[in-house]
Amino acid sequence: MLGGRAARAEEKMEEHLFEKIESIEIPELKAEICKSILESLPEWFGILESNQEYCDGVKDKPFYCVKKNNEIIGFVSLKHNNKYTLEIYVMGIIKEYHNKGIGRKLIKEIIKHAKKEKYEYLEVKTLDESRESPEYKKTRLFYSSVGFLPIDVLLNEWGNDNPCLIMIMKIKSDEF
Question: Collapsing DSSP states into helix, strand and coil, what is residue 120?
Fold first, then answer.
């Protein structure tokens, strides 16, 4: 058994070795990863038609996955909205890995991508608080914790039962 500093160093090394982010270019692989992760998150992604749209939509968009011990545990896909704004098109992390810093790592990767491509803003759409959902409350708290601010609610984007909250983040040169 390792003591103090040595144990922390080993944990850091394990974290570094077993959690890595990769860019995926193959359209069908993007769709397969998206489908697998979304199916594991029915509390967030319970509308089959929407899931199919996401799986089809990721094929031509930038796509990053997170691997731990060679298993894909999460992903994010990005959408170009205009020359100023990059959007998180869809993001999912297997539930057992929630609250372990994986989402933060993906956001850091997105910000690197956005800076490289000269975007000024990062946008995400999620379910507004006017529709109660403990899962989406956690989602909004996560996005707020990494720097997103709520700016508008669209009532017709996803239908009256699913008010769409738009959140944005100004991409700063010193961010993360």
Answer: coil
pLDDT along the chain (176 residues), means of 10: 53 56 96 96 88 96 94 96 96 93 92 94 93 88 95 87 93 64
Task: Provide DSSP, 39-50.
Answer: HT-TTT---HHH
As to burial, measured by CB atoms within 10 angstroms (0-12 exposed, 13-18 middle, 19+ buried), residue 108 is: middle
Domains, in order of start, for the chain? 18-170 (3.40.630.30)
Q: Rounded to two decimals, what is the model's pTM?
A: 0.83
Q: Are 128 and 163 in contact (CB under 8 A)?
A: yes
The length of the chain, given as a count of residues: 176
Nearest CA to 171 among 116, 114, 117? 114
